[in-house]
Write a structure and sequence with these properties.
Jelly Rolls, eight-stranded antiparallel sheet, two-stranded antiparallel sheet, Cupin_2
Length: 114
C-alpha cells in the first residue's frame, strides 16, 4: 500500500488493482463491477462470453478497453472488432450491440448519465 497526496493535498491510499483477478471473481459474464471513480467517470471490469447482447445507446461517450480476448461490436449498423490491447470509444448517441464471439476481459470507463 502506497500513500500519496490528492489534488487538494489530502492523504489518499493508492492500491493497484489486478484487473484479471477482479474479472475472474465475477459470478456471471456481462455483469460489470465498479472498481474506481475518476472524477465523474466510473471504471468497471467485466468478463465477456460468446453470447450477444442487445443494442443500447448512451447519453455520454463510453470507453471500452479489451485487456484480453476480443470484443465484437456493431456500432450504428457497422461491424467492429476490438482486439486485446485496443481501446474503442463509442460516441454518445451511437447505437451499439455486442455480436456473438466476444470473449475475454473488458474495462469500461463511463460517466454517469444525467
Amino acid at each position: 500500500m502506497r500513500e500519496a497526496l490528492g489534488p487538494r493535498g489530502e492523504e489518499c491510499v493508492v492500491n493497484p488493482i489486478d484487473l484479471a483477478e477482479a474479472a475472474a471473481e465475477l459470478p456471471l459474464a456481462w455483469n460489470s463491477r465498479a472498481l474506481a471513480r475518476v472524477g465523474e467517470a466510473s471504471v468497471k471490469v467485466l468478463r465477456m462470453d460468446d453470447l450477444p447482447l442487445s443494442a443500447e445507446c448512451h447519453e455520454v461517450d463510453e470507453a471500452l478497453l479489451v485487456l484480453d480476448g476480443r470484443l465484437e461490436l456493431e456500432v450504428d449498423g457497422a461491424p467492429l472488432t476490438v482486439r486485446a490491447g485496443e481501446l474503442c470509444v463509442v460516441a454518445a448517441g451511437a447505437v451499439h450491440a455486442v455480436r456473438p464471439g466476444s470473449r475475454g476481459t473488458l474495462v469500461i470507463v463511463e460517466a454517469a448519465e444525467g
